[in-house]
Design brief:
Number of helices: 4
Number of strands: 11
Bound molecules: flavin mononucleotide
Strand content: 15-25%
CATH class: Alpha Beta
CATH topology: Rossmann fold
CATH superfamily: Flavodoxin domain
Low-confidence stretches: none
Order of helices and strands: EEHEEEHEHEEEEHE
Mean pLDDT: 95
Largest sheet: 7 strands, mixed
Number of domains: 1
Radius of gyration: 16 Å
Shape: globular
Helix content: 25-40%
């Protein structure tokens, strides 16, 4: 039997986009090496210690209030300083609005990503910026988004395909980083 990683998904959402797509991600990962045992967790009601039981964490945060994290994630943000995420893989997807907020587009991806890396996590799932029209973003590192950027305000028709490709990318990256181990069954 092949041993796979324990994957958890945690999100914050004001108007439902990030929540809806959390469940799409869960469906896309089912029957893969990243299959999730549990439903996505709303960070409005969670404890940072809950993160520790997983090998890989997927976070979803829209950017709100001009360059800020979604409010529930913002409230627990400082608590990340109390946990050690060394050895954990982290992938982030964000929602934003490139027409409405071109100077703070997808900032949440970068704010969250840098904090989680500071706590020891390894970030995976970076994606290209092509197709997104914006001026500035804290979500960029070396020319790529530090996760997946989705924009249902302007490009909702692209989100399903972007997610499909991104989840395939995650599976490939994890397969390289953590080749499946054989365990006796
Ligand atoms: C008041 C307000 C501020 C926002 N600020 C930003 C922003 O700074 N950057 C950005 O990319 N999107 C911004 N957005 C767009 C949201 O991130 C976007 O609508 C997202 O899909 C909301 O996700 P949710 O439905 O999960 O809450 C803002 C939206 C509103 C209404």
């Amino acid at each position: 039997m092949e041993k796979s990683l324990k994957v958890g998904l945690f999100y914050g959402s004001e108007t439902g986009n990030t929540k809806e797509y959390a469940f799409v991600i869960k469906d896309l990962l089912s029957s893969t090496i990243l299959e999730m045992d549990k439903d996505p967790v709303d960070m409005a009601a969670f404890d940072v210690e809950d993160l520790l039981e997983y090998d890989m964490l997927i976070f979803g945060s829209p950017t709100w209030n001009i360059g800020e994290l979604q409010s529930d994630i913002g409230e627990v943000f400082d608590e990340f300083d109390s946990i050690d995420l060394a050895g954990k893989l982290v992938a982030i997807y964000g929602f934003g609005d490139h027409e409405g907020y071109p100077d703070t587009y997808q900032d949440a991806i970068g704010i969250l990503g840098r904090k989680l890396r500071e706590r020891g996590a390894k970030l995976i799932g970076f994606s290209e910026t092509s197709g997104h029209h914006f001026e500035e973003s804290l979500g960029i590192e070396e020319g790529k988004f530090m996760g997946l950027a989705l924009d249902n305000d302007n490009q909702a028709e692209l989100s399903d395909e972007r997610l499909r490709l991104w989840t395939k990318q995650l599976i490939s990256e994890v397969a390289v980083l953590h080749p499946p181990q054989k365990i006796s069954s």
